[in-house]
Amino acid sequence: MTDQSDFDALGFDTRAVRAGIERTHFGEHAEPIFMTSSFVFESAAQAAARFAGDEQGFVYSRFSNPTVQAFQDRLASLEGAQACLATASGMSAILATVLALVKQGEHIVSSAGVFGATAQLFNMFARYGVQTSFVPLTDPAAWAAAVTPQTRMFYLETPSNPLTEVADLMAVSEIARRHGIVLVVDNCFSTPALQQPLSQGADVVVHSATKYIDGQGRVLGGAVLGSRKLIEETLLPVLRTAGPTLSAFNAWVLLKGLETLAIRMERQCANALEVAHWLEAQPRVSRVYYPGLQSHPQHALARRQQSAGGAIVSFEMGGTDDASARAAAWRVIDGCQVLSITGNLGDVKTTITHPASTTHQRIGPAARKAAGIGEGLIRLAVGLDRPADICADLARGMDRA
Ligand SMILES: Cc1ncc(COP(=O)(O)O)c(C=O)c1O
Predict the structure, then answer these.
(1) Which of 62, 187, 256, 322 could lock 375 by a disulfide, CB 3.0 to 4.6 Å apart?
(2) For 187-220, what is each residue's pLDDT tens digit?
(3) Is the overall model pTM greater than 0.85, yes or no?
């Protein structure tokens, strides 16, 4: 099969291992890596036609590359998108999306609970005349109230980093549609294995492929997905000119990552649920945030919108004030002998992070407070480690707390 639409009738698992393949004349079975900066033309006329876009074909790897194309086609197939553009990182996917969709004098409404660098990026755009309002993710009325005649883009993560809040995609997309606003959803935490936002009203999906799509913490990558018109006419000119494109090698790693995405997510979600239940029973834990728990405020919505709760579990160590809450959280982290203390997530190795002092440090105390990120908060990205080992590791630090 070389026409990618031929894959549409196949199941998710089959598309995850086969979509995007266009075999060369060597008949290789595994996907090849095309490590080449540029492509050779048969003549000057062909070069001119390719550069003008009058003839299909590869030109230069900043514009496109066969391995990158294979990754894009496979991810598009899994997200149910007409088209995909891969980027060098998740942040460059978000940057390219803003550059392509929003111009000076226009306005973004973003959920307050987003990855720290995303909030910082939006704030940086103020210097280019683009203002951002931050609203509570879970309150559709707040999204509606924040709309101005200049609003061009709604931006959210669901579940959000690090509190796993869940947005009502249908409700927010309805508001966006009413005002002609583009809804962009960061699908990093759920991945297409659990949720496909384009089928629930989103116009654009962005990814940090660095996370679950790689799944083994090896490379950085990102992607933007949406309609063919939006991707090819609006995003592509920005991306090929500005240049934060994905390398062929990283695309290959991510392409192979997609093959095991669904089974990794299934097991990691099951492990996360087990750890979340255990955390709920710990007297020193004041709150657990996990959409798969009945105690989660958007549990019912998450059940409708996602096929599982995800693999991120956050929890709060109680304290009498900020300093004691931070000390308790750090003691838990420092007590770990198995879990990896690192800012990344989505790895098969379980990772543990203190968001207030790491991933969300630079947004400052006021923005952290608005986003509900306290000093006692710990984020776990549950991997393939045995849940009992994860709990035992956490218990060591908790006993010291
Ligand atoms: C939800 C979310 N979006 C985007 C990013 C940025 O991705 P990258 O680090 O690949 O630039 C991250 C990184 O942690 C993230 O957690």
Answers:
(1) 322
(2) 999 999 999 999 999 999 999 999 999 999 999 9
(3) yes
